[in-house]
Amino acid sequence: MEQRCPDVFPLFVKSNINMVKAWLLNVVVLSILVAGCGAPKGKEAGDPLILQKDDHSFANFNEVRVNHISLDLTVDFDQKVLSGSARLSLNNITETNTLVLDVGDLSVNEIILDNGEATTFSLGKESEIFGQSLSIAIEPTTEWVEIKYATSPEAKALQWLSPEQTLGKEHPFLFSQSQAILARTWVPCQDGPGVKFTYDAKITTDSSLIALMSAENGTTKNADGIYTFKMDQPISSYLLALTVGDLEYQRMGRNSGVFAEPAMLEKSVYELESMQRMIDSAETLYGPYAWEQYDVVILPPSFPFGGMENPRLTFATPTIIAGDRSLVSLIAHELAHSWSGNLVTNETWNDFWLNEGFTVYFEQRIMEKIYGSSYERMLTKLGMGDLVNTIAELEKEGKLADTHLYLELDGRDPDDGLTDVAYEKGRFFLQTVESIVGRERFDSFLRTYFTVNKFKPMNTERFLNYLNDNLLSDEESVDLGADEWIYGPGLPDNCPEPFSEELDKVESSLAKYNNGLIGADKLVTDGYTTHHWLYFLRGLRNLDGNKMTELDAAFSFTETGNSEIACDWFKHVVDQSYKPAYPAMASFLKSVGRRKFLTPLYSRLAATPENKLWAKEVYELARPSYHSVSYITIDGILK
Ligand code: BES
Ligand code: ZN
Question: How far apart are CA 453 and CA 334, in angstroms?
Fold first, then answer.
């Protein structure tokens, strides 16, 4: 980790310096590779790629690289602790005497080397965001180290739920969330996305529960509560995942299925009916699915994200189970990560757009294939709305550099980069490429890109070189202006304008309603789907208490069972202090832990003293049921 550039340093100078740094690194790496002098004697081709500096990891992965992890952990629900061992296999590239790992709040009891002897180790200074380094004395010939350790009950990746916090109310529940840099709080590892390793695991738990991981899984409970896992394809640490609970499985198709709590399984199966078709469509677009099986586990509502693309087993929020299958684009998104992210992986969190921008573009293509282009165009136009708002907000806060695709997150929590910029500006960048070269050429380029780079990290600079070398003519490269997109702020002029005939209908209703030309009860909303309603809610202007009452009477927004609609409605509820909806909003905030919903609502509530007081009361009750990812953010908002 390096010192940040001083804030007075002009941003463009910073980004240019970083470009030069990245370029220099590439030159150095290339010359090392070409001269073959970087690796010690005896190492052959196939040695790990030299990785860029990672601002969010202490690990010395360019000296010694972890290439396999064997976990043996026992799950203790009473103590809220995982304990046991992690055996890390090493490729000692430079024959170093020290292995540096990332850890967060772990108690390390003992470390054994492959010669059977205990070795010395030391923990570095603790940082609230990055955890600590764990430096272990090794020999140049050491092939593996075994770390005996236990997690802390406060481990940031893990959420331990009491039976009351589950649907079934009978059994406790555990799940992990490792992205971006939380794997280190439950597995000592080289916790940067550029490092890839295979893993296996033995998890011991209560025999009334099943354990599942981002690996080859069984589908039924074992009488002895011992579960073994194997992940033979290399993955990054942020994709390490574990969940333990009362979960049942239903197969959905050739290579897909769903896990959920028993009371949720039938609804989940209904909702995710299109899963197998999504997999098949994705394969026709960008090549074979590399992970054999694709399952989804529907977690309890405190899961802090919509979805997480853990290999072979997407973790998903139950808030997508709307009853009408209208929120399943999230599954297309997580599935798409099986190519963009899990196969070709952002090398550092500064390159996050390579994961998320590609995935949103790919998600859009899957949705178009399955539900048609009119549906896809609604999603894309809604995405543009989000992007425009996010860019405006970041500009207002003076965070212009955060509107670049390539981020500079040195010294900051990589979560700061988790905005619509990586997702939506990334998608529109790729759409711009498509608009310049045509769909056929772009698809064939992407298919090759995923094949050539599979199981490898990718960084922004290398991607741009790859794009110029393998797709764009000089003229097309000028038309695209990739540097402006990637290293510049806002939205470049050549971005295609999304168009949706469906949402244009909503637009004309909004124009009348917002200008007071028509009452809510006279609006023609026949055939509105979730996405029409979202566009409608986001386009409402000039609201007041009367209009809120009128809208609620006409469309019962307060009672909606659709989490996306609820969240957009509650934003207006707060802005207008529409008190009749406060009880429903309180129960939403208490039952749902998805940060994307919580953040805008608590932020708006914090804007006035009266609302802030109300929010604090609700939060006091809700906080114990949130995952750390969510409560750390909300603590910051309500402090
Ligand atoms: N990988 C992300 C979630 C993530 C990103 C977690 C960064 C931690 C750090 C996942 O694929 C994702 O993007 N989820 C979105 C849903 C998607 C449809 C935009 C979410 O959770 O809302
Ligand atoms: Zn994603």
Answer: 19
Is residue 564 lining ligand 1, measured as CB closer than 6 Å? Answer: no
CB atoms under 10 Å from CB of 473, counted, come to 11
What contacts 524, CB < 8 A, 6 or more positions away? Answer: 509
- 440 catalytic residue (yes or no): no
Q: For the segment 567-621, what is each residue's pLDDT rounded down to a tens digit?
A: 999 999 999 999 999 999 999 999 999 999 999 999 999 999 999 999 999 999 9
How many of the other CB atoms lie within 10 Å of CB of 25?
16
Residue 418: HSE in the Cβ half-sphere, 13 Å Cα cutoff = 13
Question: Other C-beta atoms within 10 Å of 48: how many?
Answer: 19
Residue for token digits 């989490």?
A: 563
Q: Decide: residue 577, CB within 10 A, 0-12 exposed, 13-18 middle, 19+ buried.
A: middle
595 lines ligand 1 (CB under 6 A): no
- Return the ligand number nearest the Cα of 357: 2
Q: Which of 530, 528, 614 is nearest to 577 (CA)?
A: 614
Taking the chain, what is the end-to-end CA distance rounded to the nearest angstrom? 28
Q: Which residues surround ligand 2, an ion (CB under 5 A)?
A: 356, 359
Cβ distance 260 to 268 under 8 Å?
yes
Which residue, among 423, 201, 230, 195, has the nearest Cα to 312 in the 3D structure?
A: 230
The number of the ligand 1 atom at minimal distance from the alpha carbon of 596 is 22
Compute the distance between CA of residue 414 and CA of residue 282 in angstroms, rounded to an integer: 29
Give the HSE-up count for residue 171: Cα atoms under 13 Å, Cβ half-sphere: 18
> Which of 359, 70, 75 minimizes the C-alpha distance to 232?
70
SS3 of residue 133 by DSSP: strand
User: Do 457 and 194 contact (CB within 8 A), yes or no?
Assistant: yes
For 386-433, what is each residue's pLDDT tens digit?
A: 999 999 999 999 999 999 999 999 999 999 999 999 999 999 999 999
Helix, strand, coil abundance in the chain, percent, nearest 5: 45, 20, 35
The label of the residue with tokens 């540097």 reads 483
Tokens 């979202």 belong to 534
pTM over 0.85: yes
